[in-house]
Give the backbone structure.
Amino acid sequence: MKKLVPVFIWLLFVVPNQARIITVDDDGPADFNNIQAAINDSNDGDVIEVKPGTYTGDGNQDIDFGGKAITIRSTNPNSPDIVAATIIDCNGMEEEPHRGFYFHNNEDSNSVVDGFTITNGYASASASYLERNGGAIFCANSNPTIANCAIIGNTARSGGGICFYKCYSRIPSIISCTFVDNRAGFAGGGVASYDSSPILNNCIFSGNFAGGLGGGIGHIDFGSPTLTKCRLIGNAATYMGGGIYGCFGPTTNCTITGNWAGESGGGMDYCDEPITNCVITGNWAGVEGGGMHHCSGPITNCIITGNSAEYWGGGMLGCDGPITNCTITGNWAGDQGGGLASCYGPITNCTITDNWAQNHGGGLTTCDDSFTNCIIWGNSNEQIYRPLLRLSIIHSDIQDGWPGQGNIDADPCFVDPGYWDPNETPEDANDDFWVEGDYHLLVDSPCIDVGDPNYPYDPNETDLDGTPRIFGNRIDMGAYEYSPTIQTEARIVPRTINMASKGNWITCYIWLPEQYNVADIEPNSVILENEIQAASLSVDEQDQVAIARFSREEIQAILSVGQVELAITGELTDGTVFEGTVVIRVIDNGGGKPIK
């Protein structure tokens, strides 16, 4: 029996501490009434849950994790209502500056802030170099995770919302956060990054301002921030980069719209890494580069439309990397280069149309590399102005013609070209606004199958729609590859849908025309009403029918009682698009209000 005692004691020592949930409530029963006290009592792995309320004053300002790997969260970070009701009010001002959080003890990704509104942070401009940055959150040499937060109305010299400083050996993450009405005296109204490589995913930047660079986001010095699925709307900078300044990491699937800069880069400025699948629209610059300025990395599958600059480069200026599969349309310049100016990289399969310049080069000016498989059409005050010596244009459709192998001069036959609306004042062009069009090619377009016959085939390359780049015998001109849409027969079961039903699935049967095989349907491409993806797809090759199953809950969320016509679309493996419609009857035998 005595021999068992030491073993029993050893077992007690190896049992790990259990992670705790520590509660905080400013005016109700909880473990603590302020956040810092809860942190001080916590251990790695603990979760601090903060009840809805407004948290201010000692213990709720300048909150310090102290290097702990803990999570501080609201009661439901995924609920916008809870996030809006769980407020850290820093109550900062010039005389008494305070921010929300201060990370400076090598915190890593396991140090998490999740689901708060952080407001009224103020980092004093007269403080030390470090202390004057990061109005709501300041992060030095750490990589915490900030998620589902609303960063609103904070002020600093740089990083009105958040500032990252020397986090280059670490990768802090900002996920699904909103930055609104933050201000920076110098850089990064929403976020500033110095020598750091933060990841920003699914964030919104709106109405932020910087007195120097980067109204939404400003990156200075080394590092490579990564932006994915972010939206920058209506931000401003006095000098450069109304939306973004210095995106030295990849920018993917982002929308950058309605931003302005007093000098250059209304949308983006000094971005040297790939920009892919982005929409840059409606931005303005007081001098040059309304949409983009000095973006020297590859620009691929982007829509650059409706931007303006008072002098040069309404759409873009000084972008020296390859530009591929982009539409550059409806941009405006007060002097030269409505679409592009001084871009010195190869431009391939781009549609450059309906741009306007007051003096010269409605399409482009002073560009000095190669254009291949492009459409340059409908630009006002010259298609091309001041071509430089190395400019080569081949296998392209150029209005009024241009020397070069395979070039044509013919109406490209767009589906629905955009146009400048005179805004009821045709005598005054200054208040005209751009109405975007559809630049896909019609079936009789002369730009189909006449691109470069030696274009290197890459099975993974896509056009601006994400469909295979080459369809048919030869690549097309322009950003969109023409692919015919085939009509299919579709049937939904049940054909009468009761809104009161609690079932899980609704099934759609799809029959293709005889010359096609249902086995060629891309499983992830089948979509109902352009928004609901099929949860599963199976095919019966013998009977040539595809069976798609959709979430009943998702479908019922878009229905109303009565006869309803639904559209179903998808793609085949060769890029062919199919579509069909089906009419169903919707009832509500449960007596509830129809969902719409």
Remarks:
- The two ends are 72 Å apart (CA to CA).
- The first helix runs from residue 4 to 14.
